[in-house]
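FAQ: What does the model actually see?

It sees only this:
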Amino acid sequence: MPTRSPEKSASVDLGRRRLLAAAPGLFIVPRHVLGGVGQTAPSDRLNIAAVGAGGKGRSDIESVSHENIYAVCDIDDERLGATLAQEFAAPFRDRVKTYRDYRVMLDENPEIDALLISTPDHMHAPIAAHAMDLGKHLYVQKPLCHTVAEARFLARRARETNVVTQMGNQGHAGEGARLINEWVASGELGAIREVHCWTNRPVWPQGIARPEADAPAPATMDWDLWLGAAPMRPWVERAYHPFNWRGWIDFGTGVVGDMGAHIIDHPYWALDLGLPERIGASSTRWGREFESFPLASKIHFEFPASASRPAVRMIWYDGGLLPERPPQIENGRQLGDNDGGVLIVGENRTLMHGVYGRNPVLIPESLHLATEPPPRTLPRSNGIYQEWIDAIKDRSKVTTSDFAYAGRLTETMLLGNIAVRQAANHKVLEYDGEAMRFSNDDAANVWLDKEYRPGFGLS
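And it is asked to produce this:
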């Protein structure tokens, strides 16, 4: 097992660049580090650790740095060092405990209260499982996990361990998300039976075969730990780490896994969709041997009726595909925004919004301007990160994208990937959510779960 960095002194409060240089050789510690009237004393701050320091991991760390960043783990020494250098002022950054192996970090530091997980998708559940077994509160980047079975496991284990959880789909905490809910609840749209969701992704390679190995992994990173739960394969420079992993089945969840949590999330929440009962799909070619996701796909989800709404058909488009332009929209007007969007089609009105729930509007614009906004019925959020922190400190507060909700949303997205995989077999899958199985395709049930390399499982 790889060893951690040399022993460092006890962690102290490490807000972003908290140590300010007033003059050469003289440093002033800001008042909020010491505590005081209107400020949080150091003793009231959480000890937060992070797994994954580059990319989204860096911004996650920055977003909670008003608490105490106690330890940071990354398999890539260079990315870890760059984040520490850019986010923390010396000498405080030298007191952050650093690790390559999340298991060592968690086992050696019972003082850790909470954990950020910002790794490739295939390692979310193994790291979260280890942390929950130790009673750590969890913030896990979207998508919540890599398989349907993991989504069920994480939601169940969070209940059993009573930890505070949040998935990192930041748009869920936004004003637009609440307005979408309020527009739907107002009845202005009428009965809703159809939803269209789309994205401009992928912006990484997909539909390709596995590349040949061209060099050993750099000494500055641990390739075995990066692979973690995934089957062993050789390192190939720039093929997987640090960005292009999303398109590979062993590591990522493709486009719907990446962006569904920012796009499907909003109609899914507003309509309380639950799990689909039928899923069909079509796509361009997969990578040879199903190594990488296809370049473009279209997925049809059918959700059963509930006591409050009729059955809903949701259609997902990616890889540049778009829904047919609705007759209400002005000619020449863009659907959604540059990243994608949603159409919630009611029998009376159609609501359109962008990615992350941005800018929800009735179409056409003239109708939107002539219509009173819906009543404000939902409490507003103070942000996806602060919701989580507040709920840890005050258990009377709640998070809005906890593992119970995020698990169902992620399961739905991952069912879409299985339908795309089975599209070549001309299958529309019938899903029994209660039993967590496809009732009409035993072969598809294999993709609900996966094997783990020893040392990186869920128990």
